[in-house]
Design a protein that fits this description.
Structural class: alpha/beta
Helix content: 25-40%
Order of helices and strands: EEEHEHHHEEEEHHEEEHEHEHEHHEHEHE
Number of domains: 2
CATH architecture of the largest domain: Alpha-Beta Barrel
Shape: globular
CATH class of the largest domain: Alpha Beta
CATH superfamily of the largest domain: Enolase-like C-terminal domain
Number of helices: 13
Strand order of the largest sheet: 6-16-15-14-13-12-9-8-7
């Protein structure tokens, strides 16, 4: 039993300098009647958000943090959640999360705010792990029913576009996927070296080497084929770093296509309005020209007919990931599974709002043969919870940004620690994770 002794929320800042919620939860220490175990968690925030996400509660006061303050959510933690939960015992994470959902009483957590609820949920898990003298990743593995030994393949965002950068690129993320290695640490090293080689290439071309929200470069390519220029620059960086494209290093995209959809049936792409079929044609050509192993949100979250065609066209060739499409929501994922739409889901804790619902969505995905990719948000923090969650669930993949910005590097460093601690038990997901895709 984990008896809650204290809950406290506060307003802190995320990687974009906007407020977010931090929560501390203290539970009774089972080994000492006078001591407590305190877990702390900070909630991330997204820029490119799906319509089906749980509600992130903001104050809306334009005189304070441009309306993005979270004092109301913090107040809900301290004055509504805390009085209701302190003194209660919860044997399981799911029981605490159910109690939080019941207290809120809405499907999208709009009463208390998903940012308030998630902070408590994450902090409680950490407090429980401390109380049981178990590392968080292994506590998650026990709770999830997995071995908890798999280090994930990093999908490393090295060129930013879309809402993450003001550079005219419609596609939001251009990623490298260092899957062809035996250890996570080797894959991370390759990604970092390619990132630095890319910086030299962009600098030589007179392009900006400033970085976007997720730490990738945000160059403004000129000409009609700016996206292909980005892909070519990345392939050159791979070669210059001494790695083999299509053997050790693969490419991935997060189009975030809902952001450049015209709201009807078209996509505003490189100065043209393209149909779903034409966008799929673009991706198909890129997949022929480059070793693209994963495409996320290739079409709008509302374009289910287009998604059906995209899946039938490319679903056996690369991973097709639903982010805005599924929003880490089991109901939306079930619709996708039943419709045979996509073959993978992006997992973001704050899209659904509790640890338990996140794990339930991952289990649903696994039961249907869908890959799950653990993901950060563009508004991140120094919190490393998703690194523990990726290893604890053995999900095999993680998106946590580029090889720059401490908010991104913190997760990579935690994964290095976990690999070291696991020792001979550690397994790297690697290329075998993508065997079902014909390249």
């Amino acid at each position: 039993m984990s008896k809650i002794k204290a809950i406290h929320g506060r307003e802190v800042l995320d990687s974009r300098g906007f407020p977010t919620v931090e929560v501390e939860v203290s539970v009774a220490d089972p080994r000492s009647s006078s001591e407590v175990c305190t877990g702390r968690a900070i909630v991330p925030s997204g820029a490119s958000t799906g319509e089906g996400e749980a509600l992130e509660l903001r104050d809306g006061d334009p005189k304070r943090y441009l309306g993005k303050g979270v004092l109301t959510a913090v107040q809900n933690v301290n004055e509504r959640i805390a009085p209701s939960m302190i003194g209660r015992e919860f044997q399981l994470q799911s029981l605490l999360d159910d109690a939080l959902r019941d207290l809120d009483g809405t499907p999208n957590k709009s009463t208390l705010g998903a940012n308030a609820i998630l902070g408590v949920s994450m902090a409680f898990l950490r407090a429980q792990a401390l109380a049981q003298r178990t590392p968080s990743d292994q506590f998650i593995a026990q709770h999830y029913g997995s071995p908890g030994v798999t280090l994930p393949v990093p999908l490393m965002n090295i060129i930013n576009g879309g809402k993450h950068a003001d550079n005219g690129l419609a596609v939001q993320e251009f990623m490298i996927v260092p899957a062809g290695f035996d250890r996570f640490s080797e894959a991370l090293r390759a990604g970092a070296e390619i990132f630095h080689r890319l910086k030299k290439i962009l600098h030589k071309q007179g392009l900006s080497t400033g970085v976007g929200d997720e730490g990738g470069f945000a160059p403004q390519f000129s000409g009609a084929k700016s996206h292909e220029q980005a892909l070519v620059a990345i392939t050159q960086a791979v070669s210059d770093a001494g790695y083999k494209l299509g053997e050790q290093i693969f490419l991935a995209l997060d189009s975030a296509a809902s952001e450049f959809s015209d709201g009807k049936s078209g996509y505003l792409f490189e100065g043209q309005t393209l149909t779903s079929e034409e966008m799929i044609g673009v991706y198909s050509q890129w997949a022929k020209d480059f070793p693209i192993i994963s495409i996320e949100d290739g079409l709008s979250e509302h374009d289910w007919k287009g998604w059906d065609l995209l899946t039938r066209t490319l679903g056996d060739k690369c991973q097709l990931v639903g982010d805005d499409l599924f929003c880490t929501n089991p109901i939306q994922l079930k619709r996708g599974i039943d419709s045979k739409i996509a073959n993978a889901i992006l997992i973001k804790l704050n899209q659904i709002g509790t640890v338990t619902e996140t794990l339930e969505t991952m289990k649903l995905a696994a039961s249907a043969g869908y890959h799950a990719i653990m993901s950060h948000r563009s508004g991140e923090t120094e919190d490393t919870f998703i690194a523990d969650l990726a290893v604890g669930t053995d999900c095999g993949q993680i998106k946590t940004g580029s090889a720059s910005r401490t908010d991104r590097i913190a997760k990579y460093n935690q994964l290095l620690r976990l690999e070291e601690r696991l020792g001979d038990r550690a397994r790297f997901a690697g290329l075998k994770f993508y065997e079902k895709f014909k390249k």
